Amino acid sequence: MIIKEITATDTYGIRLEVLRKNIDLPHKFKGDFNKDTFHLGGFYKGELVGIATFIKNDFVSLKGKQYQLRGMATTIKGRGKGIGKQMINQAIAILKEKQVDFLWCNAREEAVLFYEKLKFTKIGEEFMVEKVGLHYKMFTKI
User: Fold this and answer.
1) Which residue segments constitute the domains of the chain, with CATH numbers given?
2) Of the candidates 54, 49, 42, 43, which has an alpha carbon nearest to the alpha carbon of residue 8?
3) What is each CA distance from 84 to 61, 65, 87, 112, 140, in whole angstroms?
């Protein structure tokens, strides 16, 4: 398994396949091409099977330098191999070098346990994302 930086356009196929399947929401994110944004890809046997995007973005409830995790997804072929955990750990190492204080995300209800295992904490109440489902804001201190 290899985790490495990829381009925004490299993420689009998996975003469409996993996150936007039959949902008419954009798969291209505002901030994809910002100079501070970075994207990580998880490769298994040479195939891109996991993606995550990290965008410099503030959440009002947190004070300090922050990044938002967006569009994290793993294909069926890549699930259960620890790719998501590895991408988060590599991102945290990169964010430490950038002297970032917090990483936060809007976590789908079914992903909350995954993030909690990685020391993310819920903040605030659950909220609905139209066409997608219940979400929670979650964060971790870097």
Assistant:
1) 2-101 (3.40.630.30)
2) 54
3) 25, 23, 5, 13, 15
- Backbone φ, ψ for residue 33 (5° rounding): -110, 10
pLDDT digits (tens, 9 = 90+) for 29-84: 899 999 999 999 999 999 999 999 999 999 878 899 999 999 999 999 999 999 99
- Sort residue 14 into left (φ over 0), alpha (ψ -120 to 50) or beta: alpha
Query: What is the Cα Rg of the chain in Å?
Result: 14
Q: What is the pLDDT of residue 24?
A: 64
Cβ contacts of 93 within 8 Å, gap of 6 or more: none
Strands (E), 45-101: 47-56, 66-74
Helix or strand run (H / E) with residue 137: strand 133-141
In the block, tokens 């955990």 appear at 85
The dihedrals phi and psi of 118, each to the nearest 5 degrees, come to: -100, 20
- Which residue type is seen at 82? G
Give the CA diameter of the chain: 40
